[in-house]
Specification:
The chain is α/β, with parallel strands linked by helices and 323 residues long. It is built from ten helices and 14 strands.
Length: 323
């Protein structure tokens, strides 16, 4: 028996991911231009991306049997988005194609010096997932369920189905939106960005307390290169990040979520899970694009054996609700 739940029945898959996919237009440049200014790109690539599709691909690289459930348009971009998933033998039978609709697109500007990026995106409303798009048996196939918060109603329904089947639910939440509190109340392992924590709960530690009060087993706030802060039964867990030469931070969070699921299913302790997740995120920053640096299981284990994390640095206390 692991620290987080009893062993459930054997299942066909390790991970089912439900949520967003995207085609990413990635531009590398020497500093973002001033408002209304212009700046030439140093490099440009068009690559597949998206929160859940990238995380599912990352999980597959770590050796997990996975399925992706989401929506795409009926354009050429949808073929590019699904191509790496199909090549990795990820089940995409649950992907719904919206006729006459463009696939979600993101424009990503990456600062060459720091690797930090700015993202803007467009998601046609017709790409929205509803509970009616999902089937109970899709969710019950996996040992774990990974969700994003893009379509809270569908995600909440899926999370309730998973909990009834004793399947752990992991959430990737970046931006607060209507319906998010109902979703948070159904999640075992909410992983939220620092921005989400400060916007929705007022502070990083306020988020951990609020998420535990909502029923989370191990709430996590990601802090970029500083790592992550989590809480288990009221005990704070500080997990510093790893120092790497960051080329592009796009997809670091997706790699984090995939390695979190991998560590969870491996029966790791909370500290070990977070260390592995931080390492996977760091490794993915070493290449351009969301999926450019996704680590294999062997690469991740080697990195963990050879590298030490940074010294822990406290996140500055900023209450976003008061500014």
């Amino acid at each position: 028996m692991s620290w987080w739940q009893e062993q459930g029945p054997p299942r066909e898959l390790d991970l089912v991911g439900i949520g967003q996919s995207s085609i990413d237009h990635v531009g590398l440049l020497d500093g973002l231009p001033a408002f209304a200014g212009k700046e030439p790109l140093v490099a440009y690539e068009c690559q597949p991306g998206g929160q859940i599709s990238t995380a599912v691909l990352a999980a597959s690289r770590l050796g997990l049997r996975a399925a992706f459930v989401g929506t795409v348009g009926d354009d050429e971009a949808s073929l590019a988005v699904l191509a790496p998933l199909r090549a990795a033998d990820i089940d995409v039978e649950g992907v719904r194609v919206r006729v006459g609709t463009p696939t979600q697109v993101a424009l990503i500007l990456v600062d060459r010096e720091s690797g930090e990026r700015t993202v803007v995106w467009f998601r046609d409303p017709r790409l929205r997932l509803s509970p009616g798009d999902l089937r109970r048996e899709q969710i019950e196939r996996g040992r774990a369920l990974l969700l994003d918060a893009g379509d809270p109603e569908a995600a909440t329904w899926a999370a309730k189905v998973a909990r009834e089947a004793r399947i752990p639910v992991i959430l990737d939440a970046d931006t607060p939106m209507p319906g998010i509190d109902a979703l948070l109340a159904t999640v075992d392992f909410p992983i939220v960005s620092r921005e989400f924590a400060e916007q929705h709960f007022g502070s990083v530690r306020g988020a951990l307390a609020g998420l535990e009060a909502a029923g989370a087993r191990l709430p996590v706030v990601t802090l970029g290169k500083r790592g992550a802060l989590a809480s288990s039964d009221g005990k704070e867990i500080r997990s510093p990040g790893f120092a790497v030469a960051a080329h592009d931070t796009t997809g670091a969070g997706d790699a984090f979520h995939a390695a979190f699921v991998w560590g969870l299913l491996e029966g790791f302790s909370p500290e070990e899970i977070l260390r592995a997740a931080n390492a996977a995120a760091a490794l993915n920053c070493r290449a351009l694009g969301a999926q450019g640096g996704l680590a294999t299981r062997e690469q991740l284990l080697t990195f963990l054996a050879q590298e030490r994390p940074r010294e822990w640095r406290e996140p500055e206390a900023v209450d976003r609700r008061s500014v």
